[in-house]
Amino acid sequence: MSLAQSTGVILAKELKTEFRSRELLGTTLVFVLIIIVLFSFTFNPTASESRRFGPGLLWLAFLFAGSLMLQPSFLREQANDTLSALRLAPIDPFSILAAKMAANFLFLLLVEVILLPVFAVLYNIAILPVLPQLVLVLALGTVGLATTGTVFSAVAAQARLRELLLPLLLLPVLAPVLIASTEATIGILRDPSELSLVWLTFLVAFDVIFLTTAWLVGEYLLEE
Amino acid sequence: MATESQSRSASPPFISLPLVLGGFMLLAGASYGALIWAPTESTMGLIQRIFYFHVSSAWTGFVAFTMVFIGSVAYLKTRALKWDWLSVASAEVGVVFFSIVLVTGPIWAKPVWGIWWTWDARLTSSFLLWVLFVSYLILRTLVDEPERRALVAAVFGIFATLDIPLVYFSIWWFRTQHPQPVIGDGGSLDPRMWRVLLLSWAAMLWVMALLIRVRYRLEATRAEVDALRMQEARGD
Lengths: 224, 236
Prior knowledge:
heterodimer, A: mainly alpha, 10 helices, B: mainly alpha
């Protein structure tokens, strides 16, 4: 079975598992909503302030959500030791990691796309004219989040205090993504809107570097 | 049996006297250079002399973190635990040197800038770097089995060190878009200042090597003790 085929099969399995219960998606959605509401207490947003601070709050909320949402990615497999079963399959071990990254990317992107209009309404930001650019930045930032997050979820799954450990590992490493996506989003929402090529390139570079690293070291992580 | 115990007791001590003396002499030389021989900076005055230890500690910290990367990659390739010992020793020593950077920085900044801290590009990135490797050390304490710990630490160590340049670029671009007080070494350094700085760096690197060596031996001894305990538990 080729890498793409086996990845596809495992990805289908991940999606099926999640969409049977949808508990991960539902919980994360509400969690981000809570953060967005709580942020409104920390400063009283006027329209111009929202354009300036809103993107940062949004990305911070996504990062927090990611650091909690990616947790079950490997923990789910531990309950019935299904990871060992996956490892026994005659496939490239990277396809397990790749499928989980793809699944996490899709889950996170779905949460973000659902929450974007809510956020726009609550913080009075017009997103419709700049939707394609926004989705591009969201997708690039989320690739970085899902890549590092999935790898670190495998790391944290093997340690004690894993619920606390994953954010601890993930958030400092993702600081560059937070900066780049926030700055890119601010540029898009500014009047007149501009898509910052510097930050887009930076996000692409981050994604490429860590996807490559995950591909190089990922299989070691899945060893027994 | 006798020969084995002899060879063990004959193994070199943790720190040899010449190494320590060499470190002391270098540190003494660097201190003399920094505190007396180097000319006093014209605008900042005496407080500027902390710069020789501040900057050399930062450079040394980077060297230590680079060694974490080397140790992590080598561990994944060879699976020899000695590379993991090198990684943990380097990470700990690197955190110590960056702690020196983060403490000496504000001591210098208070009289010169009038504030202890500002979210300037270099300060923010050094802070983040420190947090990154403290996370690395915390991760290590939360995994008990040595091979497993070495493996996950190596993976995280590689990600963390690859993140260093990204952290620096992103924060630098971020801060240059929002003007901030700039650290003032735009002008050229007096040649004597350069010499003192390089001497301080040499002294710090010597201390770093010494500390890593001690820490590495400690880790090796721990592994040996663990192995002996396992042996005894099995009843061999």
